[in-house]
Design a protein that fits this description.
Elements: H1 5-10, H2 15-26, H3 33-43, H4 51-61, H5 63-68, H6 79-84, H7 86-94, H8 99-108, H9 110-121, E1 131-134, E2 143-146, H10 154-157, E3 164-169, E4 176-179, H11 180-196, E5 204-208, H12 213-224, E6 228-231, H13 238-248, E7 252-256, E8 258-261, E9 264-267, E10 280-283, E11 298-299, H14 300-303, E12 320-326, E13 334-339, H15 342-352, E14 361-363, H16 372-381, E15 386-390, H17 397-405, E16 410-413, H18 415-424, E17 437-440, H19 447-456, E18 462-464, E19 466-468, E20 473-477, E21 491-492, E22 498-501, E23 510-515, H20 531-535, E24 549-557, E25 563-568, E26 572-575, E27 578-581, H21 582-589, E28 595-603, E29 612-619, H22 627-641, E30 648-653, H23 667-678
Parallel strand pairs: 3-15, 5-6, 5-7, 6-12, 7-10, 10-11, 14-15, 14-16, 16-17, 17-18, 29-30
Antiparallel strand pairs: 1-2, 3-4, 8-9, 12-13, 19-20, 20-21, 22-23, 23-24, 24-25, 26-27, 28-29
Helix pairs in contact: 8-9, 11-12, 15-16, 18-19
Length: about 675
Amino acid sequence: MDITAAALENCGLSPETAVQLQQRLQALPSQHENELWQTLVTDFLTPELPFAVHQLLYHSVYQSQLESGTPAPAWFPGERELAESNLAGWLNELNLHSMEDLHSWSVHDRDHFTQKLIDSLRIRFQEPPHEVMNVEAGIEQVQWLTGARLNIVESCFRDKSDETAVCFQKGSSELQQLSYTELKQLTAQVANGLRAAGYEPGTRIAVMMPMTVESVAIFLGIIAAGCVVVTIADSFSAEEMQVRLKITEPELIFIQDVISRGSRQLPLYTKLGQEQRLPAIVLPEQETLQGPLREGDRPWSEFLSENRGLTCEPRNPHDETTILFSSGTTGNPKGIPWDQTTPIKSAGDGFLHHDIQAGDVVCWPTNLGWMMGPWLVYATLINDATLALSDAVPTSRGFCEFVQNARVTMLGLVPSIVSAWRSQDSVAGLDWTQIKVFSSTGECSNPDDMLWLMSRAGYRPVIEYCGGTETGGGYITGTVLKPGVPGLFACPAVGFDWLLLDEAGHLTENGEVLFVPPVIGLSTRLINRDHHEVYFADIPPGPEGELLRRHGDQIEALPDGYFRAQGRIDDAMNLGGIKVSSVQIEELLTQAEGVREVAAIAVPPAGGGPSLLVIYVVMQPEANFEAESLQSGMQQIIRSQLNPLFKIQAVREIEQLPRTASNKVMRRKLRDLFQGSET
């Protein structure tokens, strides 16, 4: 390799080490780029080397591919993946030879694919289904597992006992473990406590808590009792909480008293307010509750049943288990129900694409209020793995130490966490080599950040993963059977068919994603919206007459079956991994003094990474535009009334918002305007 000692020294190596490495590199035989990179990973690139060395060598090896936009793999499947992964087992059993073959079979033979997935996950039924899929009422209203009776919680426990279900750490305490038997007993105490209190199957019960052992047991216990979990993220303001409670009308809420974030203690229970008469079960963050309870509310310790025997209420496949929220493209959040079949999609993606196996330790800093919370519970427990939970701030060194000490094997995250780790060198000196697979979702990834992440664990793949609350999992993802390219998706999700179409409805290499249903886990109804109008109305048939369903992502197809995310087609945006509508932000920010009109856009930064929130304003005729003070005021509105995690990058004045003939704001033009002004 033609790398100078000076270039290596500039990467942080000592002069002596730089010369030694340069001499070793020069002695390498001429090889194809992929073979050369694999040699470097095996013989040279350790986590202890400065990342700048990894980066220099990667860019040197793949210079022509990176300049032309051709995928440049940083990880290659090894013997374990090719012989022992769940996907490899499927290919062998089905006598198929590639991921492309498997995907084609899965979308052309949906019945057999879904049945094989159910069998592989060992889903338990109290009464087996008469048929896997019924489309007599139309594809929009597909019926899955007709005639079956089941409760998905039974599939989370099955025959496991002493195996570790959850490992967790609170603060600076020692790592603790809960066996499957112990988690099952705590789940039973919740379910039996609900029954004793008179809550019938089908009753909606809200949960607003951080991700803890107790919240996992509450989540499973509510579903085991046949009730429906209404999930509300613990970061929401009181106003946003009330919006979701009004939409779903639950009869009870489980809520923690406070949440500690570093040195700060944030109130949670008081967000309910004295006027909200929804009864609450209140859990203490520490050993005792912080402050008095409202009349009629009960502490967690008094609610729990003494009966530790778990009985799961039999339910129909399409009975609701959970209601989650996704903002979509209008101001009020959509209430999206997950039924008894949705977890099959979640656990199936964990099984097939994240290669979660018995004994794995799975960690993903998330919350039950976002789809990855329920996804994490099902993908871990149905696949007989261990769920790893920590209350450490995900971007902190403490969380990275937890990943090491808990011996996490599958680590999920959002790209902004990786960016923070890299900027702070949070993983320095830690041993992450036990990790088999990373996964990333929620935002467009920065390829250099993902290369850094792979390098910290001795090069492991990052499964880029994208879907939505209404899909129960991903439609586009990665796989351990194809080389991993930083920041790129490697394949469509097995069992999920979709097309890329341009504005004229023609197939394209860079366009809007349109789903081709049916897919198990894909929503068929909404709580507070017309499902057909949201997803199917005014969409012409596909090129071969397919019924198509809108989703809103823009994807670019690349050589060798890889894909790159290009953000959202519609007016929704992902900010820090949280989906929110432009309209929701705009309605709030019109409160700002002197503002006549507001347009909120998400701008992907150059090179990938978390989207930036940019606000365009049309001022009142008599008002002066002062960017700094206006941005500060708007940030305070968002912090107090929406979500403190949403940060405004810039506020810009514009004389008139660009609009279509039907008066819709053309946010794409605003994105182009902002990006043009930044270059």
